[in-house]
Amino acid sequence: MKKWKINKCDVQKAAEFASKCDINRLALEVLTSRGLTEFQQVVDFFTDDELADPFEIKDMDKAAEIINNAVDAYDLICIYGDYDCDGVTSTTILFNYLESMGANVMYYIPEREAGYGMNIDAVEQLAQSGVKLIVTVDNGISAIPEAERIAELGIQLVITDHHQPGEILPKAAAIVNPHRADDTSRFKELCGAGVAFKLCAALDGGSYDAVLEQYSDICAIGTIADIVPLIGENRTLVKRGLDYMANTEVIGLDMLLNRAKIDRNNITSNNIAFRVAPVINASGRFGSPVTAVKALLAEDETDAEDYVDTIVTLNGQRKQTETDIMTDIVNHINHHPEVLNHRVLILAGKGWHHGVIGIVAARILDYFGKPSIIISIEENGQARGSARSVKGFNIFECLTYCSKVLTKFGGHECAGGLSLNEKDIPEFISLAYEFSARLESPPVAVMTADKLLMPEDLNVECVKGLNVLEPFGAENPQPVFAILGARADKITPLSQGKHTKIDFTYGNSAAQALMFGISPEKLCFSAGDRIDMLVNLEVNVFNGRESVSVKVIDHRLSGVKQERYFAAKDCYEKLMRGETLPPNFVRKIIPCRNELIAVYKYISAVKETTLDNLFMRLSDDNMNYCKLHICIDIFKDKELIDFKPSSMKIKLLPVSRRVDLEESETLVRLKGML
Q: Residue 522: its pLDDT value, please?
């Protein structure tokens, strides 16, 4: 079960704002719940920021002059990119622009195996190729030794980047990075593609007219993929890019949109984030990032189709590899459920593809609601890991605490990467557990709703008005609404039970909700129950008729006391970790015979359920999550049920003999603690 937080909107402020503009009430209520409490803030949000003069960014003038001089001299210029979607789109933009200027230009992107950023071997190869000027995109700000070597080789270096610089800047003729301490430009949140886009404008004398028309579609993809805040100039770039994308002249992108079956009349940032960017990223994860660049640069339809076919195939491999790793993890958890009792989940496997362990870490975090670190062990005894976390558990601080066994690490509060020797993994796990145990409370993933939805909000005009908030992304997510106390009237399976449709009544409103990826038998409720849901709202058009589409993100039975759930869950995990608990507490969580009978009777009636569903049905003042889990452990000990820790799924087993629950290992151990 996920922890919910429902923000409060300012209804009066929203009504006041609505009287001053033509934005609808529901959209304004969302904005007030996100902290926009002054009308000018609302005006600013909806006012597309004029793109600031590119020369506001420190060293942009130097960079433009150096590159223009190299173009005029026909010196060989190399654009040095990165293998992720931001690096690919940055490279595409700048290479295409310089080539159109008649420059003698090439590009180089390191393979993922070579690691992020510049490396000296590549630099020396470029020197042998006759490169006179290197321009980095989406990297370079941390390339101190590489920059020194470039200078020794007599090559000019221009760095364009958006990552945080260290105390010492590399030796370069120009360093264009809005995060430089001495940079006075107003907007700092550009991605690598955004910086490259502005560099092209600077090369064009500071005008955005041509580059917006030519490259805003590609720039929008990089901006969305790199999860930079979609505010200010980023919001402007993405809005313009999505507009141009509908009729893109980039042959490869046009094919990608067709393959993703994206409606050209309604291209959204979510379409790009989930259906286009992963395909481009797959090129750098499973093949060569150069293939994605070629797909976006191809001027011949046959070539473009070949490259697009390749990266689509690679994306299929990426999906299958993720599935294989997840299968390994599920099997490991089912055989070693003790890993779930720690505040951070650490899982390691041999041969797990390091190109997807970050994605897997995010999936594990989403599924279990805990910080996760996924480690891939390579044949040479080295290991690489990727970490994802939640607010309240600083993964960078955790890695710092474990640094004595790490050969390399980096990151920030919610994400990080690490390298270590295979032999040091057990000590790393021990240190990470030690760090997490010092926290006052367990880290928990939180799902936030913008506001409690009112029944009268479930109408087409209200929901259509939310479109003005697009494009959605970091710091401007798609609105999430809470529906509390709705009555489930009818439950219908869709697509042979893969999905579920719910007819529900909410106040005086009747509506339907869709639950994707959830079959009816996995629901925690039945027809007639009162339920709570977190939902997205959209307008669906079918046969010319518009209706409200309610898409369920999470659901539960009404009345669940989530604070009790998480407190009792933490107690159970402490118990399983072997931490000392007061005897009086242990005595309270040992289930009596009648409680065991009541839980078993419920399982016997439903045959299959999950631990969370059981909690929602049976929890009361005497039966909390901790005691309920202990009941399940007792039944599993005596082979009355099959219990899968990875999914918390409970399945009744046939009984052919008399069972004495008092002999359960779990019960014996607990009573021994008294």
A: 87
| Structure-block tokens of residue 624 | 């909390």
The pLDDT value recorded for residue 49 is: 73
- pLDDT, tens digit (0-9, with 9 covering 90-100), for 644-671: 999 999 999 999 888 999 999 999 999 9
Which tokens is 279 given?
């395909």
Taking the C-alpha atoms of residue 239 and residue 236, their distance in angstroms, rounded to an integer, is 5
State the amino acid at position 400 in one-letter form: T
Query: Can you give the three-state secondary structure of 259-272, one letter per residue?
Result: HCCCCCCCCCHHHH
Nearest residue to 648 (alpha-carbon basis) of 337, 184, 198: 337
Helices 209-225 and 85-100 meet at what angle, rounded to 10?
160
Q: Are strands 641-644 and 105-108 parallel, antiparallel or unpaired?
A: unpaired
Dist. CA 171–CA 144, nearest whole Å:
7
Residue 113: its pLDDT value, please?
78
- By three-state DSSP, how is residue 308 classified? helix
Backbone dihedral angles phi then psi of residue 409, each to the nearest 5 degrees? -160, 160
pLDDT-flagged residues of the chain (< 70) = none
Question: Could you tell me which residues come within 8 angstroms of residue 394 by beta carbon, excluding any fewer than 6 positions away?
Answer: 413
Residues near 609 by beta carbon (within 8 Å), at least 6 away in sequence: 602, 603, 649, 650
| Tokens encoding 315 | 């994306």
Q: HEC string of 178-247? A: CCCCCCCCCCCCCCHHHHHHHHHHHHCCCCCHHHHHHHHHHHHHHHHHCCCCCCHHHHHHHHHHHHHHCC
Which DSSP letter does residue 580 get?
Answer: -
Backbone angles phi, psi at 19, to 5 degrees: -75, -15
Q: CA 629 to CA 648: how far, in whole Å?
A: 10
pLDDT at residue 324 in the model: 97
| Cα–Cα distances in angstroms (integers) from residue 47 to residues 41, 44, 208, 239, in the given order | 10, 5, 18, 12
Contact predicate 627/635, CB 8 Å: no
The reply to whether omega before 471 is within 30° of 0 (cis) is: yes
Looking at this protein, which amino acid is placed at residue 376?
Answer: S
Of residues 490, 496, 483, the one with CA closest to residue 527 = 490
Paired strand residues for 135 = 79, 158
Tokens in use for 350? 């041999």
Which class for 509: exposed (0-12), middle (13-18), buried (19 or more C-beta within 10 A)? middle
Q: b or e along 389-427 (b: 16 or more beta carbons within 10 Å of the residue's beta carbon)?
A: bbebbbbbebbeebeebbeebebeebbbbbbbebebbee
Q: How many CA atoms lie within 13 A of 497 on its CB side?
A: 5
Write the burial class of residue 364 (CB in 10 Å: 0-12 exposed, 13-18 middle, 19+ buried): buried
Distance of CA 66 to CAs 72, 102, 159, 175, 231, Å? 10, 15, 12, 12, 31
d(CA 440, CA 445): 16
pLDDT, averaged across the chain: 94
